[in-house]
Amino acid sequence: MILKRYTILAAILMLSFTGAFAQVSLQNLRCELLQDPLGIDVVQPRLSWEITSVQRDVKQTAYHILVASSVDKLTEKDADIWNSGKVNSSESIYNQYAGATLKSKNKYYWKVKVSTNKGDANWSTVASWSMGLLQYKDWEGRWIGFDRYFPWDNQTEGRLSARYFRKEFSTNKTVASATAYIMGMGLYELYIDGKKIGNQVLAPAPTDYTKNIKYNALDITAQLKQGKHAIGVILGNGRFFAMRQAKAYKVKTFGFPKLLVQVVIKYTDGSTASIKTDDTWKGTADGPILANNEYDGEVYDARKEFKGWSELGFDESKWLKSEYVQEPGGTYEAQLNEGMKVMKNIAAVSITKRPNGKYIIDFGQNFAGWVKFNVKGTKGNIVSLRFAESLEPNGELFRTNLRDAKATDTYTLKGEGTETWSPRFTYQGFRYVELSGYPGIPQKSDFIGCLVSDDMRTGGTFESSNSLLNQIFKNSWWGIASNYKGMPVDCPQRNERQPWLGDRTVGAYGESFLFDNTALYKKWLDDIRYAQKEDGAIPDVAPAFWRYYSDNVTWPATLLFVSDMLYKQTGDITVLRKNYPAVKKWMGYMKDRYMNTEGIMTKDSYGDWCAPPVTAEDGKGVNADQKHPSTLIATAYYYQLATMMADYSTITGNGGDSAGYVALASELKKAFNGKFYNAQGYYGENKLTDNLLPVYFGMVEERHKEKVVKQICYIIEEKNKGHLSTGVQGTNFLMRTLTAIGRSDLAYRIASQKTYPSWGYMIENGATAIWELWNGNTAAPKMNSQNHVMMLGDLLIWYYENLAGIKAAAPGFKEIVMKPELIEGLDKVNGEYNSVYGLIKSSWTKSATDFKWNISIPANTTARINIPAKSVGQVKEGKDKATDVKGLKFIKMDEDRAVFELGSGDYSFVSEL
């Protein structure tokens, strides 16, 4: 699933065999690290493909890859870049390129031929990729911009107008290909002859620009015919010119927007040409975008538009000569994670006129993005849109939780018929919009909500017989999508929107079942490593737009937890290898400074962040931004990290570290039990989280485990009346711990609650995403985002791994274990997950007498399935006894489960209960 973010797609090829063989197809030829196949900077890309077949138990036995400089040369005889020859291997993912040295700006074509245990396939269709600018010297242009304020800018309020740049040029020959390489800081839009290039928005992905800068490569071949052309770029502020600059000690800013462009043109006669940024470009900041700010919105005056500004013949005499400016300082890198774009259009549900003459537009869904609208009126008429997640009891916008974010777009009409507008360089988190200054009576059809998120496909689906579980899943999808912004942010609405590490420690794992998010999280791990200080310290926010280095254990632990997730979900060991040194350095940093002589980690910042008040009323008006440091949580997490590092040191070729981590874990476990275990059978203060962590991490001594498990169940069943009482840290491991101790029924009871505190309580109180706080409707408004994901914990993991029964038994789902939990009251689950090998399906229903289960296993993988049954003789596959079906290997009866091993294919099981 993660791999597909970086995918080159080839057309589906149906490969037929003679004789008894049915059709086999190879689809989705993939080159890892490619979303857009242009401009990659990986000199040894890895190639992957999916195999699909109507037959069962299809396994690859060999492959043959060809890479060539042209399609014509892509034959076994002529392949001039790489001919792998026939390689006996079952690996269909991450096969590393091993041909000639790849060169900047060159395009490469490839195809693959696979052999399977069912026969040999024909050659696949052709896919391609192109290299970016691999060396610093390959960038011929210079950075241009205006490193200053203009009279109409407001430095105090962070209002800075957009900058516009343009240049005309000629192509004197027939163009074979043309690519624009662009770094527009902080955000850009590129135009050729008046047409915007690409459907990406808010590009490029944000980074710490002093560390690394992402460039995009855009194919403009179709736009460049022989003759004269004009190129134009608009620069917005993004994260480069920081939204708030009053607290320089906290907020990192990088200067004024700036631009580096290089257009590489290849002609049919083999010659080349470059168009690059220099001081022959003209620019202005006196355009229609008067201000643009991620927190505050966009101010646009259509009266100041320059008609045809990016087209030939525009009068640029009043524009300024572009100025050379200092480069940002970071390493130039190709953006390999998906760009953002408008992913969904959302219709307005209602428009209500208020007594003050303004209107409230309800889109029926909390999401992140903007509004696109039509308007017709008098020149100079100002339309204002103010955004909010919910309404006050009197029907007005509730905006206190936005803090000082203005979250307002304004549009001044030019008065020329019907005008259509949406902002370029901002986004807001909202459901409701207050509309003022709109001429005439607004109609719902004139307003479209645009969900802006990273351009990744939904990788999984889930549906059950429990409508509440289904609605929680839907709310989760919207919350996750809203907070993918080239990095995972905490919320999309207030003056924060920061990539907090602690929000995704486990959350990233659950998200990976819904979204093909590998590229995003690989990029984010890079952000975290770039933010690491020389002494090993890792911040709480990365990129470190806020300078928060609090030296706690749980937030920086995300670096290893997300690496672990990517390895397990995709099988990509390079993620571990790449991040292992940074984790090792940080582990040593924390141990040297904060582990006392007793073996306890003494430093924590947040504790079980945002644990719920006993009742919603108890939390009424209370500010939830309260830290309750916990050495128990810090020590438990540090133990888990040491245990993981003991394993990964060996896996990554750092076996010499393993013994040290084993010894460290042993020391921590002994100290933890000596310090925090109470003879009455609980840990710490006997909070639910205090007991969950040592059970899940395997820290409880065997002789005490039964007592601690009883305490967990007692707290939930008796003390909490079937509810949770966990903050972020406990919720991360809540559902899986309960399932592991044999109480999936208790996990289901928690998930099905509609009263406080629960996910259902949020929905009962109007939530269409996930709240930041369990009592988000009563807490002080400073911190009660209505579109957050940190409180999902491991819920989505539980949905897929335990309810649908789709879990990796080996990294990347090469081996799959399927064991759905049967829980009283849950009669149906249908789950699908796109693994790196292909689609995995699990659809089951149960009645009082039988269990029906349809599953799909992708080619080149195997599965161990656990079918509920009284005996193996009562299990059928199709119309036959399962034990009589070829390819089904009965392993054993495991209590009330018949365990089989099987290969790829579609299966239908029925068993008696």
Automatic annotation (TrEMBL):
Question: What transmembrane ranges does the database entry give?
Answer: none
What EC identifiers does the entry list?
3.2.1.40
User: Which EC class, in a word?
Assistant: hydrolase
| GO annotation terms (biological process) | carbohydrate metabolic process
Q: Name one Pfam family in it.
A: Ig_Rha78A_N
Q: Which InterPro entries match?
A: 6-hairpin_glycosidase_sf, 6hp_glycosidase-like_sf, Alpha_rhamnosid, Bac_rhamnosid6H, Bac_rhamnosid_C, Bac_rhamnosid_N, Ig-like_fold, Rhamnosid_concanavalin
Q: Which residues form the Alpha-L-rhamnosidase six-hairpin glycosidase domain?
A: 459-803
Keywords annotated in UniProt: Hydrolase, Signal
Q: Which residues form the signal peptide?
A: 1-22
Known SUPFAM superfamilies for this protein? Six-hairpin glycosidases
Catalytic reactions on record: Hydrolysis of terminal non-reducing alpha-L-rhamnose residues in alpha-L-rhamnosides
Q: Answer yes or no on keyword DNA-binding.
A: no
Q: Which GO terms describe its molecular function?
A: alpha-L-rhamnosidase activity
Ranges for the Bacterial alpha-L-rhamnosidase N-terminal domain?
A: 173-343
Instruction: Pinpoint the Alpha-L-rhamnosidase C-terminal domain residues.
Output: 805-879
Per UniProt, residues of the Alpha-L-rhamnosidase concanavalin-like domain are 353-452
Kindly indicate whether the keyword rRNA-binding belongs to this entry: no
List, alphabetically, the PANTHER family matched: ALPHA-RHAMNOSIDASE (EUROFUNG), ALPHA-RHAMNOSIDASE (EUROFUNG)-RELATED
- This protein is called what? alpha-L-rhamnosidase
Q: Which organism is it from?
A: Pedobacter hiemivivus
Which lineage ranks, top first, belong to the organism behind this chain? Bacteria, Pseudomonadati, Bacteroidota, Sphingobacteriia, Sphingobacteriales
